[in-house]
């Protein structure tokens, strides 16, 4: 038997298909007999009064537990017990309906036979409400002695105050939208509620009494002159969430406090609205109740959540947690049959329960387990069987990538060693005399039946393809398909990479897919290809001067450029063995120099970003050259300073263009709004049956149209500049990463981490 389950002392289920809410439960000595009774009202109009007295804990409902059950024919929104009748201080029952407030006297008569005592209610007075009620509160408003006044909040934000049998006044709450919980603080003589602005508001009773009457909402001339008083809030606290309930508590050993239960927290406030403490709740609460604590200066709070849990807090410290069989909408603490601190809960479906915390001793004893001899042979055989199953399940043949000979579909790309005799470049923005192209031949070879294979080819912008998507019919085993395409430079800037990717997607048929005529398991095969440097640059005369220079050190003697750059160097020119010039199609030049005495190579250019492609090509060709000579210890290093200042200038330029793009976008939006507004004005003038002068609206429309076109052209031009700046920044970033890796002699894995950090995206986007 769990220690953390609420122990059922007495429980019952009220009616059939009845609904209940927060104000439908009240615990008080309603018949003035000296013992607490449980009063419950339902939305079906039933009023019930209970006096539970089970013979033993856990007994169900007995007929004599129900003292009174009467149907009032109107939904009961709230029940309260207080001194509501003038001339006497005995307790009476107030019942709030949608359009009526009724006050009853509950009395019991001693029975003359075995049926027990008889209880009845007598209507003392009632008030017909002009507005639909939401909730109510009561108390000694204005500091009156020996009686309680009632305040009702309507659905449209009016506070209606009743001095027992007579209506006092009504006031509208300022800025009202939806009604919230309402409570009265006798210590400060004020009403406390939570508005739709999600803030706790306090209104003094005296301010309400002397404010402008709610029936006279239109301001008169005298009020405008200052003779009337406006309803002013006493204090405001923003809690940032809607409130479920408010309780004002004042115990002898604790200071007066205002407790507010929010959707995610509960707050304890001082009388002036300052927060004493707050507690963040783990689950969404349904109701709560502060009550007196045995520890001086603290207050205990019962908080029930939608996880059927009741938590007991001492200020903000969780002291106990117990599980309930239902989700209550209201919780009270009662003294029943001499048992103090009984927790009374009511759910929205009518489950009424009286429970207490703790546990009863359990007499259950676990039975003894029959002892038997262990059969080691059976256990050994079972262990071997389990190990065999684990071994089969952890095979890595489908997890690790397959080798070239085991792949089901192989994609290969072959780049032509020579440029196309007739260039296939179309719509190129490059201003050079001729834009070359190179042919790439891609072959797909299938070892199994491949359904609907598709091939996608992509290259780095501003490079472009003559065709980038290919669809094929089903491939039989050992069948192949070949496609030919051309690559050329389309944009008027340099690409950051001279590489391309081929990705082929296909599906392998399964037994289920063949039967259902659907695609089988979808798989992907891919490969990369490298484009020649001749695609974007031409040989030219070396330049002696340059703004940016880099020196790459090696551990081997310098190699003649006639050997490693045969496609650029003229074999008849001996001077080109140590100096070589490259001119990109975009117009910039790069010079490559080899030292005759040391093992160094120098790359120089007027632009930092232009150094990247030549530097990378140099290192790749040197590695290939020494690899052919079976030299395995060749390394390149960099000992100079990283050109960070020039790199930061490229970052600033790119950032400036992006800011300019945002500015142009904002200006274009403003002009477009202005253009549409002028169009609407003109359209109204043209539709008017009586012609009116245009007042130069046509001239203003034409001028705005010109501004919109000019801003659109400027935005388009700026977008092209942003793209070029991004390409330059990407090339410079590649160069900086390469120089850092050569400087620190990083491994391939470390270089991959560095590239992933500095090069997260391969294209320009707004989220970059």
TrEMBL record:
The keyword Lipid biosynthesis does not apply. Residues 532-639 form the PTHB1 platform domain. Residues 1-361 form the PTHB1 N-terminal domain. Residues 433-529 form the PTHB1 GAE domain. One of its GO terms (cellular component) is BBSome. Keywords: Coiled coil. Residues 369-396 form a coiled coil. InterPro entries: PHTB1_GAE_dom (IPR028074), PHTB1_N_dom (IPR028073), PTHB1 (IPR026511), PTHB1_hp_dom (IPR055363), PTHB1_pf_dom (IPR055362). Residues 641-744 form the PTHB1 hairpin domain. It holds the Pfam family PHTB1_N. One of its GO terms (biological process) is cilium assembly. The keyword Coiled coil applies. This is PTHB1 protein. It comes from Crypturellus undulatus. The gene is Bbs9.
């Amino acid at each position: 038997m769990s220690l953390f389950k609420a122990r059922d002392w007495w429980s019952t289920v009220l009616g059939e298909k009845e609904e209940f809410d927060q104000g439908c439960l009240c615990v008080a000595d309603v018949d003035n007999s000296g013992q607490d009774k449980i009063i419950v009202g339902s939305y079906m109009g039933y009023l019930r009064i209970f006096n539970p007295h089970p013979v033993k804990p856990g007994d169900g409902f007995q007929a004599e537990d129900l003292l009174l059950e009467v149907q009032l024919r109107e939904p009961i929104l709230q029940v309260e017990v207080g001194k509501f009748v003038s001339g006497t201080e005995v307790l009476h029952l107030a019942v709030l309906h949608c359009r009526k407030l009724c006050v009853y006297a509950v009395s019991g008569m001693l029975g003359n036979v075995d049926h027990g005592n008889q209880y009845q209610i007598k209507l003392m007075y009632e008030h017909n409400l002009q507005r639909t009620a939401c909730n109510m509160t009561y108390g000694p408003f204005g500091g009156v002695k020996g009686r309680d006044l009632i305040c009702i909040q309507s659905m449209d934000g009016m506070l209606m105050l009743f001095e027992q049998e007579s209506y006092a006044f009504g006031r509208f709450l300022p800025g009202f939208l939806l009604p919230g919980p309402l409570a009265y603080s006798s210590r400060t003589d004020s009403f406390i509620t939570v508005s739709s602005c999600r803030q706790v508001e306090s209104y003094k009773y005296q301010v309400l009494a002397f404010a402008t009457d709610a029936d006279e909402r239109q301001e008169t001339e005298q009020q405008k002159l200052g003779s009337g008083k406006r309803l002013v809030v006493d204090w405001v606290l923003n809690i940032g969430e809607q409130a479920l309930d408010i309780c004002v508590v004042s115990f002898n050993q604790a200071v007066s406090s205002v407790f507010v239960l929010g959707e995610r927290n509960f707050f304890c406030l001082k009388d002036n609205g300052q927060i004493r403490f707050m507690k963040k709740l783990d689950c969404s609460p349904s109701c709560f109740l502060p009550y007196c604590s045995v520890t001086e200066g603290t207050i205990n709070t019962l908080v029930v959540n939608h996880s059927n849990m009741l938590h007991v807090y001492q200020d903000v410290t969780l002291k106990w947690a117990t599980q309930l069989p239902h989700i209550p909408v209201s919780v009270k603490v009662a003294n029943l049959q001499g048992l103090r601190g009984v927790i009374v809960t009511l759910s929205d479906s009518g489950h009424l329960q009286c429970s207490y915390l703790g546990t009863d001793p359990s007499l259950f004893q676990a039975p003894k387990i029959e002892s038997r001899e262990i059969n080691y042979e059976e256990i050994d055989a079972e262990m071997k069987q389990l190990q065999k199953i684990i071994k089969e399940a952890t095979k890595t043949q489908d997890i690790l990538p397959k080798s070239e000979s085991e792949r089901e579909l192989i994609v290969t790309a072959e780049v032509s060693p020579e440029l196309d005799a007739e260039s296939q470049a179309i719509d190129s923005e490059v201003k050079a005399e001729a834009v070359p192209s190179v042919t790439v031949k891609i072959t797909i070879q299938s070892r199994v039946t491949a359904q609907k294979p598709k091939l996608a080819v992509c290259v780095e912008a501003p490079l472009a393809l003559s065709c980038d998507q290919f669809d094929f019919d089903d491939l039989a085993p050992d069948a192949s398909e070949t496609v030919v395409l051309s690559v050329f430079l389309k944009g008027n800037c340099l690409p950051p990479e001279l590489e391309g990717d081929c990705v082929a997607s296909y599906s392998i048929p399964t037994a289920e897919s063949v039967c259902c005529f659907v695609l089988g398991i979808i798989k992907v095969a891919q490969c990369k290809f490298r484009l020649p440097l001749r695609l974007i640059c031409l040989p030219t005369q070396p330049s002696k001067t340059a703004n940016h220079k880099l020196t790459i050190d090696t551990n081997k003697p310098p190699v003649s450029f006639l050997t490693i750059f045969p496609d650029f160097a003229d074999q008849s020119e001996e001077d080109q063995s140590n100096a070589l010039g490259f001119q990109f199609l975009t117009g910039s030049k790069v010079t490559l120099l080899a030292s005759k005495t040391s093992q160094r190579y120098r790359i120089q250019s007027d632009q930092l970003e232009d150094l990247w492609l030549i530097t990378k090509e140099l290192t790749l060709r040197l590695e290939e050259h020494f690899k052919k000579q079976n030299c395995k210890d060749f390394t390149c290093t960099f000992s100079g300073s990283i050109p960070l200042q020039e790199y930061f200038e490229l970052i600033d330029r790119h950032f400036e263009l992006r800011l300019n793009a945002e500015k142009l976008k904002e200006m274009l939006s403003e002009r477009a709004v202005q253009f549409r507004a002028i169009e609407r004005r003109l359209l109204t003038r043209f539709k008017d049956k009586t012609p009116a002068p245009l007042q130069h609206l046509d001239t203003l429309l034409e001028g705005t149209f010109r501004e919109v076109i000019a801003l659109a052209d400027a935005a388009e031009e700026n977008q092209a500049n942003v793209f070029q700046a991004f390409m330059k920044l990407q090339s410079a970033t590649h160069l900086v990463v390469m120089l850092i890796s050569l400087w620190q002699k990083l491994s391939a894995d470390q270089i991959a981490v560095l590239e992933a950090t500095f090069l997260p995206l391969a294209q320009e986007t707004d989220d970059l």
